[in-house]
Write a structure and sequence with these properties.
The complex is a heterodimer of chains A (288) and B (259). With 288 residues, chain A is mainly alpha-helical. Chain A folds into 2 domains: 1-59; 65-287, no CATH class. Helices cover 84% and strands 0% of the residues of chain A. Chain A has 10 helices and no strands. Chain A has helices spanning 2-19, 28-59, 65-79, 84-108, 115-153, 156-162, 167-204, 211-221, 224-250, 259-287. The two termini of chain A are 42 Å apart. Chain B is of the alpha/beta class. Chain B has helices at 51-58, 84-87, 105-117, 121-134, 151-162, 180-195, 238-242, 247-253, and strands spanning 10-19, 22-35, 40-45, 66-71, 74-75, 90-93, 168-171, 206-211, 223-228, 231-236. Chain B has 2 domains: 10-89 and 169-253, P-loop containing nucleotide triphosphate hydrolases (Rossmann fold); 104-165, no CATH class. In chain B, strand 7 (168-171), helix 6 (180-195) and strand 8 form a beta-alpha-beta unit. In chain B, the strands form 2 sheets. A 6-stranded mixed beta sheet of chain B has the order 6-7-8-3-9-10, with helices on both faces. In chain B, strands 2-1-4-5 form a 4-stranded antiparallel beta sheet, covered by helices on one side. In chain B, helix 3 (105-117) crosses helix 4. The chains are: A mainly alpha (288), B alpha/beta (259). Chains A and B meet through helix 1, helix 3, helix 5 and helix 6 of A and strand 2 and helix 3 of B.
């Protein structure tokens, strides 16, 4: 309860500072300080919300399975299966636009032997997970903020509490699991699709590279760390996107007119969180 | 009354009630109020007098800023998962129904039963057929709340609150905006509920309703209270209301009854 109280106070303070016409301080350092303070408050709130969600996820895994598990499947479908056609299209586009051009450029300077390592760095480590995260944030994350924000504004969260149903268990847990599973699967499909269509593009451009050579180069460039970090990165991205979306939609009292504002804020913070996490993973790659 | 049953369903002592949307703003102060099991209370007040916030506090959903609010003898702010059975003895019907907009009316009613009983959709549906029939909701069972007129979501919210068979039912402004037929149905049903209805196995239910139109609730068996100037003022029985010179009370009494 004290955590929730502090969270509400912090959010109200942040809201008042940011949106309700409090005049900006005069000096640049004051503005910077205020922004930093608001950022830390948001981080604190997100952290607390993430811990609460993880606690509920682990503690209530078996509670009301016949109600919650179908919702989990529904969310996996929404964040993963339903987006597959869009990701196939995107993988083809990515392969033709980016990978095909890289293959062609490397061939021109006689550096075709570096193809495998270039592809792994560009597509497997960076572009695949980050692009998937951005698309999931835009396509599913936004919808989640709006759904949850509307439910919050219409009092559905209080109705759940009145019925003894934990809103985090019923509303958040399925979305978090769905987003994590969807993020991982779609990234894998995007990478495979982009690499395949990239080769197709290179083949059409007449680059002298057999499928077998291409496959061997990729296999040699990939290490076990790539697989581990890919799995870790995508699930962390999925968890964080779901957290940002659900936190802004659910963790604070909202009115209907606030919903569009928090949706914009959630997308901005989601992008920032993903970029920061990505930077963290780059450090791990560089150190390994 | 059971010998183990506490003497009060709701007991508030020195309670300050905050607004649900702004927990730093007190809407009622120093509330001292006791609802005994089996009683029917009608709490009247103008708009924004704190009726909803009072019920949310009474239901244990909004912790009091100060004072003690006890439900069935247990401090409401201490309610955790272990006390869930006690928590589920309280049913709450919101003023606007507050149904889950993505679920059909039948799914809304079934949800608490499914969640707490870990039931599949089909199992709950079988159990609820009689209830839907009784509430005249069978033809609308598969409609979404937005697809039916306002009267029906409110009735669905009542069915949803009763599906877990509560001992105490809190209804927030249940007659607001209802047509005459539905209003009549509600008044009759709540009256039967307080005396013991077959839907709850004949057990009388303690009832608290809020209203802005006192005249509809005229009955010698009910107890009345008024919310005014951030205070809850217990008024007693109907006979004591009519003679009161209080202009706020007279205004609430003057609302035109159409029944």
């Amino acid at each position: 309860m004290p955590v929730q109280k502090n969270l509400v106070k912090a959010l109200e303070f942040a809201d008042a500072q940011e949106f309700h016409g409090i005049p900006l301080p005069k000096s640049f350092t004051d503005v910077l300080g205020r922004k930093l303070f608001l950022f830390l408050l948001t981080l604190q709130g997100l952290g607390a919300f993430a811990l609460i969600t993880l606690g509920v996820l682990l503690r209530k895994y078996r509670v009301a399975g016949r109600v919650v598990h179908p919702r989990v499947r529904q969310e996996i479908n929404r964040s993963g299966v339903a987006l597959l056609p869009m990701f196939v299209f995107l993988a083809l586009g990515l392969g033709f636009l980016v990978v095909g051009q890289t293959v062609s450029a490397l061939a021109k300077v006689g550096a075709i032997n570096y193809l495998g390592s270039t592809m792994v760095i560009v597509v497997v480590r960076e572009l695949g997970p980050l692009l998937t995260a951005m698309l999931l944030l835009a396509r599913v994350g936004t919808a989640q903020v709006i759904e949850l924000g509307t439910a919050r504004a219409l009092g559905e969260v209080e109705a759940l509490e009145a019925l003894g149903i934990d809103p985090v268990h019923y509303l958040i847990v399925p979305r978090v699991i769905g987003m994590m599973a969807g993020m991982f699967s779609l990234t894998v499909y995007l990478i495979i699709g982009a690499l395949a269509s990239g080769y197709l593009c290179a083949f059409l451009q007449g680059v002298a590279l057999t499928p077998s050579d291409y496959y061997h180069q990729l296999a040699e460039a990939l290490s076990w760390l790539d697989f581990v970090l890919l799995a870790l990165k995508t699930t962390v991205f999925g968890f964080c996107i779901a957290m940002v979306a659900c936190y802004h939609g659910l963790a604070q009292p909202l009115r209907l007119e606030d919903v569009s504002r928090v949706a914009v804020r959630a997308v901005t913070q989601g992008v920032m969180v993903c970029v920061l996490i990505d930077a963290g993973f780059i450090v791990v790659y560089l150190l390994s | 009354m059971n010998s183990n049953e506490p003497s009060a369903a709701i007991e508030m002592q020195g309670v300050t009630v905050s607004a649900l949307r702004d927990i730093t703003r007190p809407v009622l102060e120093n509330v001292n109020w006791t609802v005994a099991p089996g009683e029917v209370w009608v709490v009247a007040g103008r708009q924004h007098s704190g009726k909803t916030d009072l019920l949310m506090t009474a239901a244990g959903l909004l912790p009091p800023v100060t004072g003690s609010c006890r439900l069935w003898g247990r401090e409401a702010r201490e309610f955790g998962e272990a006390e869930l059975p006690d928590r589920l003895r309280v049913g709450l019907v919101f003023a606007t129904g507050q149904l889950f907009s993505q679920l059909t009316l039948a799914e809304n009613i079934a949800l608490p039963l499914r969640y707490h009983g870990n039931l599949a959709a089909g199992e709950a549906e079988r159990d609820l057929r009689g209830l839907l029939e009784f509430f005249e909701l069978t033809p609308l069972a598969n409609a979404l709340p937005a697809q039916v007129s306002r009267d029906w979501p409110l009735r669905t919210a009542l069915a949803r609150a009763l599906v877990l068979k509560p001992h105490l039912l809190l209804c927030d402004h249940p007659l607001g905006g209802l047509g005459p037929r539905h209003r009549q149905w509600w008044l009759q049903f709540l009256d039967q509920l307080s005396r013991g209805h077959e839907q709850l196995g004949g057990r009388p239910v303690t009832l608290v309703v809020t209203t802005e139109e006192l005249a509809y609730w005229k009955s010698a068996d009910r107890r009345f209270a008024l919310l005014r100037d951030k205070q809850l003022i217990p008024l007693g029985a109907w006979a004591e209301l009519a003679g009161s010179p209080d202009p706020a009370l007279q205004e609430l009494l003057a609302a035109p009854p159409e029944i």
